[in-house]
Design brief:
The complex is a heterotrimer of chains A (about 230), B (about 280) and C (about 240). Chain A has a single domain, classed as MetI-like (MetI-like fold, Orthogonal Bundle). In chain A, about 80% of the residues lie in helices and about 0% in strands. Chain A is mainly alpha-helical and about 230 residues long. In chain A, helix 2 (about 10-45) packs parallel to helix 5. Chain B has about 280 residues and is an alpha/beta fold. Chain B has 2 domains: about 30-110 and about 225-275, D-Maltodextrin-Binding Protein, domain 2 (3-Layer(aba) Sandwich); about 115-220, 3-Layer(aba) Sandwich (D-Maltodextrin-Binding Protein, domain 2), CATH 3.40.190. In chain B, strands 1, 2, 3, 4, 5, 6, 7, 8, 9 and 10 form a 10-stranded mixed beta sheet that branches. Chain B is globular and about 55 Å long. The relative contact order of chain B is 0.18. Chain C is built from 9 helices and 11 strands. Chain C starts with a strand and ends in a 5-residue tail after the last helix. The chains are: A mainly alpha (about 230), B alpha/beta (about 280), C alpha/beta (about 240). Chains in contact: A-B, A-C.
């Protein structure tokens, strides 16, 4: 097939695109997890005035359209925008920021839900066995890991598969900000449907590999040593 | 504290690996200067830029970041200072852009043709006509399906100017606005047995996929001129004006013009663009 | 020295008083059964003793010190007791790691943890499951691991909240045997909330009957079952108490 021949010919460029896709979405997911897990844990573990409203806001942001996230980041990073001095527009950094906007609410919301569902009983067990407040909180988080990891994977999936935000703030620049999804758009626009599908298959295979690696490690992710 | 164990470590390792690899693969492109070209999708999708840009980059030792969007969005990027040079085809908007002092130089580069294309059955009987206004009139009167880009692109602007000249406001079930790029719009027209206005370059590269036939060509109104504009550095000092000026020189100089005149001959048997710099 | 000296203890949920104990002294090295109808405040009492629930008022003295005084809680003292819940929660890891949890929190040397954990697992007869994932055990096995997880800490008092309520007869027998054996060998005090009168008869030295958050009767088990001094105790034992 033409597409397969083309894939082989363009091997080095495709590898570059794949690596950038993983780098951008991977970094966005890690940054979002560093924000979202503590925030979700805090929401899940505490009762406070306005918790319901905060959760509704988080759940609403889980449905933030990628194009809108991209547009907001675009306007902020534009030379005429507040952070124009940084000259980050049309760079991978801008793509990471836009994807963080999409992924952080997902990881926050799903972590909060996972933690809240088991919070009381785990917390009591840990306290009764002599855990301090912080140790008990850590135990709750660690015991909610299945849900939290599901949140991280959902977030990564959203980042990896979205095109609206990275297209707008990255600009689909060849050798610089072109990722799998924007490459698919470009191929489709040029009428190279087979190539678009082939890149899509690569994207799905990578998604499969990433989730397999994470789940494999999730098995070992347990209380271990205190 | 408990051990978090391997998961974050593995993730970090992956990232470290990628951070290590990506600059290595991009190092070749890193020269002392870069610039951003905002252009229409037609120049990228036709393959013209893939053909011209590497030659320009080599000659001027610069890296061009190509951002292919609609003409409208490209000029908006120029106004915000997010692009250094524009290659667009929307003459009226280009003039307004220059009048607003957003650009420092504008030059004609080339033109290609717009065509009316449509299904082989030609339900409005316009095949072979040379008067585009008359052809549009016939489609509207017969209420035969017509797909419009509807996206404020150069092609859309051209189409609207023809309707305006006819004093016809296209509306109704026969008039479909796709809101998509040229290629998708051609596909849609084919699926719907509809007519559409297209630039020749995109039409030729999609011809095999769509099966749409050329209906009307040759009217002076259907000329599609492309202009190159260097964004005014007075507004945004960080604009890469020297590279932008170099690009204007290249595109309108004898070498660039000759290259444009050759492009497409090998693949389609004829040039897709006609050089027109004065 | 008494085990617990509870004074003026009250706990209100919304506007319902679930616990109101003016004075209750418990002795060391005994097995207490806390009986009473649903909603009598039995579990709440146990949770307050373990500092898992904060009462609205009251002080508690524990052996040689003040566990709770004017809202000030001594978690160091709470570490000298341990609770086993009706539905034991197993941490999603091996039986070994579950039992080691409390010792690791206390930062004991690796060697000692290993020794004490395998002792405790032997004590509850779960040595064949030491590396087995705890969440895949049966209910009775989980409760045995939960007991080992508590006993490994060598608590002075074991708080049991209906530990056999969901178990089959054989498991009930095993659990009771473990508790009794530990009590006999180490003199561990036991406070056991139960619904099961027969279990109280089998296990308890002393019985406390709670009704509506108040202590109706506290007496020697034999006396309680044979000669209840209180009308409400009689009604409870006859099954004629309506609640």
């Amino acid at each position: 097939m033409d597409a397969i021949q083309f894939l082989i010919q363009q091997q080095s460029e495709i590898i570059e695109i794949v690596l950038l896709s993983l780098l951008v979405s991977g970094s966005a997911t890690i940054i979002s997890a560093l924000i979202g897990i503590p925030l979700g844990a805090w929401i899940g573990l505490n009762n406070f005035v306005g918790k319901g409203l905060l959760l509704r806001i988080v759940y609403t942001l889980m449905a933030l359209p990628p194009v809108l996230a991209g547009l907001v980041v675009y306007l902020i990073l534009s030379r005429s925008g507040p952070l124009g001095e940084l000259e980050w527009l049309f760079t991978p950094s801008a793509m990471v920021i836009a994807q963080c906007l999409l992924v952080t609410p997902i990881i926050t919301g799903l972590s909060a839900a996972a933690i809240a569902s088991k919070e009381g009983i785990i917390y009591d067990h840990a306290r009764s066995l002599g855990a301090t407040r912080m140790q008990a909180v850590w135990t709750v988080i660690s015991e909610s890991r299945t849900g939290i990891i599901a949140g991280i994977m959902t977030g990564f999936g959203r980042a990896f598969a979205e095109v609206g935000a990275v297209m707008l703030v990255g600009g689909n620049i060849r050798h610089y900000t072109r990722v799998l999804t924007t490459a698919i758009i470009l191929e489709t626009r040029q009428g190279n449907f087979e190539m678009g599908v082939a890149l899509g298959v690569i994207l799905l295979i990578l998604s499969f590999i990433v989730s397999s690696i994470v789940l494999l490690n999730a098995k070992d992710f347990n209380l271990g040593e205190v | 504290m408990m051990r978090i164990n391997k998961l974050p470590l593995v993730l970090m390792l992956i990232v470290a690996l990628m951070v290590g690899l990506v600059p290595a693969t991009m190092a070749a492109e890193k020269v002392e200067s870069t610039m951003t070209l905002a252009t229409t999708t037609s120049t990228q999708d036709s393959g013209l830029l893939d053909y011209l840009i590497p030659i320009f980059e080599k000659e001027y030792k610069t890296t061009v970041k190509v951002i292919a969007v609609g003409s409208g969005q490209a000029m908006e990027m120029g106004k915000k200072g997010d692009a250094d040079v524009l290659l667009v085809h929307s003459r009226a908007a280009e003039d307004a852009f220059m009048a607003g002092k957003f650009g420092s130089v504008r030059k004609d580069v080339m033109y290609n043709q717009f065509l009316i294309v449509g299904p082989k059955s030609d339900p409005a009987k316009i095949k072979g006509m040379t008067d585009v206004k008359a052809a549009f009139k016939k489609i509207a009167t017969a209420k035969k399906k017509f797909v419009s880009r509807g996206d404020n692109s150069g092609t859309h602007t051209k189409e609207l100017s023809i309707w305006t000249a006819l004093k016809v406001t296209p509306a109704g079930r026969w008039y479909v606005e796709s809101g998509q790029g040229m290629g998708d719009t051609l596909m849609m027209a084919n699926e719907m047995n509809a007519y559409t206005l297209t630039d020749e370059a995109t039409y030729l590269s999609w011809q095999k996929k769509t099966g749409l036939k050329e209906m009307v060509r040759g009217d002076k109104l259907l000329l599609n001129p492309y202009g190159v504009i260097a964004v005014n550095p007075a507004k945004y000092p960080k604009i890469h004006n020297k590279a932008a000026m170099a690009f204007v020189e290249f595109m309108t100089g004898s070498k660039g013009q000759a290259l444009i005149g050759e492009f497409g001959k090998e693949k389609y048997g004829k040039a897709l663009f006609t050089p027109s710099a004065k | 020295m008494n085990l617990f000296e509870i004074t003026h203890l009250t706990k209100v949920y919304r506007d319902r008083t679930v616990l109101s104990i003016d004075k209750l002294y418990l002795e060391r090295e005994r097995i207490y059964a806390v009986l009473g109808p649903n909603g009598a405040g039995k579990s709440t009492l146990l949770r307050i003793l373990n500092l898992l629930v904060e009462p609205d008022s009251g002080d508690i003295k524990f052996v040689d010190g003040q566990l709770l005084k004017q809202g000030h809680k001594s978690y160091d003292m709470a570490r000298r007791m341990c609770m086993v819940f009706q539905r034991p929660l197993m941490f999603s890891t091996s039986v070994y790691n579950n039992v080691a949890y409390g010792l690791r929190l206390r930062k004991l040397p690796h060697r000692e943890i290993e020794r004490r954990v395998s002792e405790a697992i032997d004590f509850v007869g779960m040595q064949d499951f030491i590396n087995y994932p705890a969440t895949k055990l049966s209910g009775g096995e989980m409760q045995r691991v939960a007991l080992a997880r508590a006993l490994v800490l060598r608590p002075e008092v074991l708080l049991l909240d209906e530990p056999t309520a969901n178990l089959d007869p054989h498991s009930v027998q095993v659990i009771e045997e473990i508790v009794r054996k530990h009590h006999q060998q180490f003199g561990t005090s036991v406070i056991m909330v139960t619904h099961n009168l027969f279990q109280a008869k089998r296990m308890a030295d002393e019985v406390i009957l709670l009704v509506g958050g108040e202590v109706v009767e506290k007496s020697n088990a034999e006396d309680f079952f044979n000669n209840p001094s209180n009308e409400r105790s009689k009604a409870f034992l006859d099954g004629t108490m309506v609640y």
